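As a point of orientation, let us examine one representative protein, giving the amino acid sequence and backbone structure tokens.
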Amino acid sequence: MAERSTAAVDVAGNSGDEPLTAKADKATTDGLAKAQDTAERSAADTGSERQDTEPGGAAPELHSGHRLARRYRLEECVTRLDGFSSWRAVDEKLRRAVGVHLLPADHPRARSVLAAARSAALLGDPRFVQVLDAVEEGDHVYVVHEWLPDAIELTALLAAGPLEAHEAYQLVSQVSQAMAAAHREGLAHLRLTPGAVLRTSTGQYRIRGLAVNAALRGIRADRPQRTDTEAIGALLYAALTQRWPYESDAHGLSGLPKGVGLIAPDQVRAGIHRGLSELAMRALVNDGATASRQEPPCTTPDELSAAVAEMPRIRPPEPTFAAPPEYQRTTYQQGTYGRTQPGAGMASPTPVLAPPPPLQSRTGKALKWTVAALLIAALGLGSWQVADKLLDKDRGTTDTTPTQSSTGDSDKAVKPAKPLKIDDATEFMPEGSGIRPELVANATDGDSSTAWITKQYWNYPNFGNLPGHTQGSGIVVDLGSVKDVSGLDIRMYRSGQKAEVLAAAADASDPTSLSDFSQRLTKLETAGSTVKATLDKPVRTRYVLIHITELPQDGGSTTRFRGGISEIQING
């Protein structure tokens, strides 16, 4: 951690030809290092952090719109610190968002940043945010990495409250396994803070800044595995208690009371899972872990991962069924809106007008009797038809040709629609950029509780106004062969999405662009929780497109947008 010893290997002094895992004696003899301990560790902590305090060159004075290598367009500066800057950018060649770390080529840590980035890129583990490029170009050195717009930092999750037991278990399990794999390849994180851990919309945790974050800041340590293990323990402690396990406040969290020392999470907050509480203490530096069981401390990510695996599995909480997203109980519905409080001196509310009394004139009475007579006649006609069919059955009538010939058109008109079998479904990618192709099957599995859900986009409802999604997205269903489509019933992931339903021509084969879907089944409009339609005349087609062009706000935010499709039913 930055506040604690979160360094792991000597990356600041490495050249491009040296491995990232350097010897401790080299770290201790590095003339640029300066010993420090910003969190006042106990004497038991022998892995001290050293950070290069030389500011180096000034951050390059670049601006939004600048292009690196005629490919990476800088969009927004998110960090400017200690001679380097970090940006959200766009890879114009592949039409995707990326992140960029940028520093001057003469910066004292430029060489070590390049070496760390190139080593991290070789790992190729999907549990880490991937390094895509590491380049020295003219006066600049820059590192390009993945950008996950739908992921949420652990810092933001903890700002809303502590994690429940199952989620905390998933956090420590996934992060410890990932870091164990990295250390087996000679890589350490060095700065594993809540801001370096991201949770995706599918519930997976991903780690960013492997080796690179520490290289940017010149962080090193004598005992890299112990340092990263302690960092994971601090993350688990914070996830359980919403408190930072040291006396100093950090990462938006309050520290522990001064003079109390390191106390177990289940002594900080009631109801914490006992096994997870003990696991956090075993990972932190406290010379013997929990006082309750005296389990040995975990000093490497491998040991911590093994300890997690030995625990009984923690099941997820039972799902709670909330009201549909479009329904929100208001203060008026709760009965408090407009009430005059005692002594408030408010004017009395406007009286509610009662509905008009029923018609009492002779015209009204005649209308009521007419309606009653029609109902009686309809009931009588229906009863006669039922009785006639029963008599036909008793007589063993088998010749229905006259009935069919005289009423065939009528029977065909009232024939109920039936769902057509969906042979396959794919994500609509008119510009080649996918969103969540692995979730498409959720929209045709017959279970409305699962869904194809888009990523979370910022600032613009039209998929973030990002290249690759200017024509929207959606799902194309394949009926297997050309069929008569007479209607559709589609459940949307949430209301407020601007959508339309189109069909390809009967002779179409593997349609991929909007122009391939020439038959309109519904008009483009803002949809509610469902999109339903019954066609006046069946349409012959094999491929049907549910096309979404704009997304609704996500979680009430005015800057974040997300949508999707829960279930698709095509009727024939």
User: Anything to note?
Assistant: Residues 22 and 97 are 34 Å apart (CA to CA). Residues 1-60, 288-292, 330-348, 395-414 have pLDDT under 50 and may be disordered. The domain at 424-571 is CATH 2.60.120.260 (Jelly Rolls). The first strand starts at residue 35 and ends at 36.
